[in-house]
Amino acid sequence: MVKKIYTLVFTDKAIASLQSIYDYIKKDSPQNANMVIETIMNTSETLITHPRIYRTDEYYHPNSKDIRRFIQWSYRIVYEVVEKDNTVVILNIFHTSIAPKKIKG
């Protein structure tokens, strides 16, 4: 069986979130800022071959879309599997202390 390969796409919101995370951590440690962003990016890249490895996001209606999430350290990475386009879209990345219902919109 041939494995399906998905395209990984980051929304503008997700890219801005990554930049904010980097800038915040960099104030105390540029090395840790690089490590955090690199690890989030590397973990996101695993979605190319295994897009449903993580659970569906409990803050979204189960019948809406295939929206999933994973946690890396204290950051919640929310993504959508778009089957018709063979795409995984990173929707947003935010600190787990922030209420997801405020972020969703």
Structure description:
- With 105 residues, this protein is α+β, with helices and mostly antiparallel strands.
- It has a single domain (7-103), classed as YaeB-like fold, CATH 3.30.2310.20.
- It has helices spanning 12-26, 30-45, 100-103; strands at 7-10, 67-72, 75-82, 87-95.
- Strands 1-4-3-2 form a 4-stranded mixed sheet.
- A hairpin with a 4-residue loop joins strand 3 and strand 4.
- Helix 1 (12-26) packs antiparallel against helix 2 (30-45).
- The radius of gyration is 14 Å and the shape is globular.
Overall tally of domains: 1
Poorly predicted ranges: none
Tell me about the largest β-sheet: 4 strands, mixed
Total helix count?
Answer: 3
Features:
105 residues, YaeB-like fold, 3 helices, 4 strands
Question: What's the helix and strand layout?
Answer:
Layout lengths: L6 E4 L1 H15 L3 H16 L21 E6 L2 E8 L4 E9 L4 H4 L2
Parallel strand pairs: 1-4
Antiparallel strand pairs: 2-3, 3-4
Helix pairs in contact: 1-2
